[in-house]
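PROTEIN DESIGN WORKSHEET
SECTION A - STRUCTURE
LENGTH: 261
TOKENS:
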């Protein structure tokens, strides 16, 4: 174990021998680090916070801090983070609230670039990328492989679907459909399928073609959402489309805030 003499590790904190805790870090009494974590310097971790293995946390980041919610009154809530995440400088990750289930959850293999904010009760999946100053308000869900561009805020209770791409400077106030591209340069609208990202992740040409057909039905403006979903379900019933098309249709059908189209 390497703990710098200037670091403050409260009694009760769990720090395995394989971890590195750099200068001026502060760990609260209910913090648990997984094997091989590295806190470079000036990292503050509070609350009932658990980090998995091999997370690398850069200077001036705070994890498990009290939520910025006036309804929060120091209840014993927490934050849990998976394995192999890169958490860069000046990032803030809040713990949960009682009203939101009490836990902020982050998956594995994510990259959070400098100055990002992940608010209370957010759920972030695996392999997510948030570029500089990406911001999640409370209760946001970001599913696996989504990318959130720089300086892009996501409104509370929104959901960002798998493999979605949000361009830099985009304000998100509704759910972002999985596999879609959304950009401020396109008036904060969905403008197609994330074909490049899907190809990089092993989607076949046929899967991409079927998803393109479904996305066009949802975004071309000739059908409302109900009509588009009926057409997609007809396509599925006739043997066109696979589980990815089905997931897209179910995501849109279950949206409570409406989807960006």
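SECTION B - SEQUENCE
RESIDUE ASSIGNMENT:
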């Amino acid at each position: 174990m390497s703990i710098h003499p200037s670091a403050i590790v409260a009694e009760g904190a769990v720090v395995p021998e394989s971890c590195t805790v750099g200068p001026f870090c502060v760990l609260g009494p209910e913090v648990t680090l997984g094997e091989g974590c590295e806190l470079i310097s000036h990292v503050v971790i509070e609350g009932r916070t658990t980090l998995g293995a091999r997370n690398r946390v850069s200077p001036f980041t705070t994890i498990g801090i009290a939520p910025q919610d006036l309804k929060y009154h120091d209840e014993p809530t927490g934050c849990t983070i998976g394995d192999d995440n890169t958490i860069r400088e000046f990032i803030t990750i809040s713990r949960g609230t009682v009203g939101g289930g009490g836990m902020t959850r982050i998956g594995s293999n994510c990259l959070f670039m400098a100055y990002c904010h992940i608010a209370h009760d957010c759920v972030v999946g695996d392999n997510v990328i948030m570029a500089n100053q990406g911001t999640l308000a409370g209760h946001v869900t970001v599913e696996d492989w989504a990318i959130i561009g720089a300086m892009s805020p996501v409104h509370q209770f929104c959901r960002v679907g798998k493999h979605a791409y949000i361009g830099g400077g985009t304000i998100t106030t509704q759910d972002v459909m999985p596999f879609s591209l959304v950009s401020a340069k396109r008036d904060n609208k969905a403008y197609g399928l994330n074909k490049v990202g899907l190809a990089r992740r092993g989607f076949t040409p046929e899967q991409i073609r079927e998803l393109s057909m479904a996305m066009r039905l949802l975004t071309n403006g000739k059908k409302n959402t109900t009509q588009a979903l009926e057409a997609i379900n007809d396509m599925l019933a006739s043997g066109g489309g696979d589980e990815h098309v089905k997931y897209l249709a179910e995501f849109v059908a279950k949206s409570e805030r409406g989807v960006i189209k």
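SECTION C - NOTES
The longest strand covers residues 189-193.
The chain is about 20% helix and 25% strand.
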